[in-house]
Amino acid sequence: MRSLLIGSLNRGKQAEFNALLSGLDLQVVFPQAFFLELEIEETGIDYTENAQIKAQAFARASRMWTLADDTGLEVEALGGEPGRYSRRIAGPGQTDADRRRFLLDRLKPHPRLWVARFCCAAVLASPGGEVFRAEGSCLGEIIPDERGTGGFGYDPIFLVQGLDRTMAELSMAEKNSISHRARAVKAILPVLRQQLGLV
Between β-strands 66-75 and 114-125, what pairing exists: parallel, antiparallel or unpaired? Predict the structure, then answer.
């Protein structure tokens, strides 16, 4: 059985990738199993470049095929921010809850609707330096009160377009059928199957 490393130390992302790839004849592994606690500077100009930086760094360090992503929340009222800085918006050492509060404080002067979208770039990298890219997005709006206990990040304040539920109110299966990450992974699956020789 072939193995695929997920190039992320984020437990929430790991759980989603594990579920998204569960139908494949593939052993999905995570950096913690190899003590790969890499500190990677996300210096790319967009999501795809950041995802590529992470995928290639983990692929080189592990000598394994690696799938990584970079994700951001873009809010129309803030001119597309926080975008690539979604995880760093409130400064170092902050929790997901801190970031949500910080974002909501910035949105208070702006009238609702707070239209937003999640964007995700997924990159598959080989130990030899080959890279393959895909993208996905999910539309919705930011709401001022948290709802739901699932997911992570901004999920409790992101109301999914057409569902009247936040990402945090969805089951893992529901989230993995409509989310930005699910769409990016679905788009990259054909090349992943081909490169890793999966049926």
Answer: antiparallel
CA distances from 189 to 71, 80, 95, 124, 177 (A): 18, 28, 32, 10, 14
**Per the residue annotation, which of 25, 46, 69, 70 is the catalytic one?**
70
Confidence of residue 199 (pLDDT cuts 50, 70, 90): low
User: 180-196 and 11-20 are packed helices; what angle lies between their axes, rounded to 10 degrees?
Assistant: 60
Amino acid at 108: K
3 state DSSP class of 99: helix
> Could you tell me which of 176, 183, 184, 111 has the C-alpha nearest to residue 142?
111
Section 64-87 average pLDDT: 96
pLDDT value of residue 25: 93
- Domains annotated on the chain, with CATH: 2-196 (3.90.950.10)
Clarify whether 70 is annotated catalytic. yes
At residue 37, does pLDDT exceed 90? no
Pick from 22-26, 37-41, 84-88, 133-137: least confident: 37-41
- Quote the CA–CA distance of 154 and 96 in Å, as a whole number: 7
Residue 109 neighbours by CB under 8 Å, 6+ apart = none
191 DSSP 8-state letter: H
